[in-house]
Amino acid sequence: MSTKTNFKRVALVAVASLGLGVLTSVAPANATEGVATVVTGGSTFITTAVSGSAAAQTGTMIVGGRLMVDIDGGTTTSDTVITVSGGSILSIAGDSVGCQVQSATRILLVDDTESGGTAACNDAVFSPTAAGTNMVISSYVGSTDLAAGTRTDKITMTVIATGLKGVFSAGESKFSLDDTGDSSAATTDTLYANVVANGGEARINYELNDGLGANVPSNTAVSASVTAGQCILGDSTGTEDLSSITLTAPDADIWVAQNAASEDLSTTCTVAISVAGAVAATKTILFQGAVSKIVVSSVEIADSGASTQTGLGYVVAQDAAGNSLGYITLAEGTGANASVSSLTFTNSNRTASGNTAVNGGAAPGSTPTSIGWTCSGVKGSAQMTVKYAVGNGTYIHSAPFTAACNGDAVNYKASLDKASYVPGDIATLTITATDSAGREANDQEAIGTASSAEPAIAGSNMTAVTAATNTDVFTAGKKTYKFVVGSTEGSYNLVVDLPKINSTTYSQSAVTVPYSIKASSTAVSNADVLKAIVSLIASINKQIAALQKALLKK
After folding, report:
1. pLDDT in tens, 31-48
2. Can you give the pTM of this predicted structure?
3. What is 411-517's CATH number?
């Protein structure tokens, strides 16, 4: 045979049939040097149609079925080997010189210089060995030795058991909780679609397929029912009124809403979808309740020298069950005064959520909205609230919180949690800073600046767990640091120096904090040893005297 290295053009055109006959094949076009595969099929395919690039074609077929492949070598000058694994060659048509069946799993397509014309293997029929084992048809160009040849075209057929056509398959079907605007089922639920705002609806989409991935027959029995929770179902939006409904195949929507008994209350419902009398999928939905509580947390102290400030606290709206609610409109409640003016809300005065497009429900763990306020340039504070309008002129208010406008730190003190430590202790240093009015320093300003005013905290036999940095800030006028206590006994001073705050105007300079380290000794003193010896001698003398007295009586 020819040893030329030119690659042969191979085109595989596949069709399939359940019986011994085959469907009409489609011949490849424009075969030239090189390799490419074209796979086509019609609506009568009993398999998932073969598709993909020449070297990675895939499809699905039933065990016992037949796959026909047309192999056309074109005008070529090198040998091509066609092999099959997970199946066998049943029959083949074509030039016996150019197309040679060498075994049940191997075909040789010889080069044109030996076949005397265009080599072709027409209607090569392959059959899979067993369900669950892929049938793989491959072409190797350039050598009859597979190790030396180059694998070009490849068809991988997933082989499934008979009796699956038209029979519902859970693995091939789709059931998904979706955005209320979605109309098609997916393989997974839309993120946060299981959380529905009070008074809203959930949408479950389904698509029922058989073992081949094709639609199940339209007369397949489909139903849905509420198996837990206070909910009602419907097959279109706004018409929910039953706890169990009959649906259509192969695809449709299921709408889920709270029933009258759970109106404004948080409830969790489970919906089961049954196909042909058996439960095929379940979906659990959290319906949130009406606003019951406004919670303000993590409130900071604003800088009195700044104007509008944001991120000074967080606000969430909750229902009676404690669920955080998304997209709830809030407003300033009470308490603004001359030094602290109106509140500023992020998210356009609404509580935040993970996904605005999904059913209006707040995403689990979603970030709450933040608030700030405006300081009028003077120090002061106000007791304020955040409110939610229930309607008819009534409101739900948060608990009052202190909105403060304080100045920068101009003085500071420092203290340790104990006066004396033993080696290995963890010591806690607390720095307390105040503004020019004696109030806690605001939480907005760093305690140091780079290079010229870096904080310095040091003491003998004290190793910082986390060293002070320029970016550290006070919280409610306090900042703490921890140290590991060393092993050398003695009396020492911890020096706390914050150059950024030091000033002669406010009589502030570095401060020192005294402390001592004493070993926790278990040693016995010399006096204790001597006392024990004297006691022991006295005891021995008593025993000797008693023994002498006993011997004299004899």
Report:
1. 332 233 334 333 233 445
2. 0.65
3. 2.60.40.1930
**Alpha carbon of residue 91 to chain centroid:** 52
Q: Cα 126–128–134 angle (5° rounding)?
A: 115
Distance, CA of 92 to CA of 82 (rounded, Å): 12
Lowest mean pLDDT among 58-72, 245-259, 398-412, 518-532: 518-532
Residue with tokens 């969790």: 268
| pLDDT per residue as tens digits for the range 186-196 | 999 988 889 88
**Distance, CA of 176 to chain centre:** 18
In this structure, how many other beta carbons lie within 10 angstroms of the beta carbon of residue 527? Answer: 8
**Token digits for 520?**
């926790």
CATH class of 174-287: mainly beta
Between the alpha carbon of residue 359 and those of residues 196, 201, 325, 387, the distances in Å are 5, 7, 12, 24
Average pLDDT over residues 100-107: 89
Residue 62, both tokens: 């039933």
List the one residue out of 418, 410, 409, 441 whose CA is nearest residue 494. 418
Structure tokens given for 63: 């065990």
Strand order in the sheet with 420-421: 420-421, 511-517, 490-497, 456-458
Beta strands in 104-243 (DSSP E): 106-109, 119-128, 135-141, 150-160, 174-178, 195-196, 201-207, 222-228, 231-234
Specify the pLDDT at position 212.
Answer: 75
Q: Domain 293-406 is in which class?
A: mainly beta
Using DSSP, state whether 293 is helix, strand or coil: strand
User: Residue 28 has what pLDDT?
Assistant: 32
CATH architecture of the domain formed by 11-160: Sandwich (2.60)
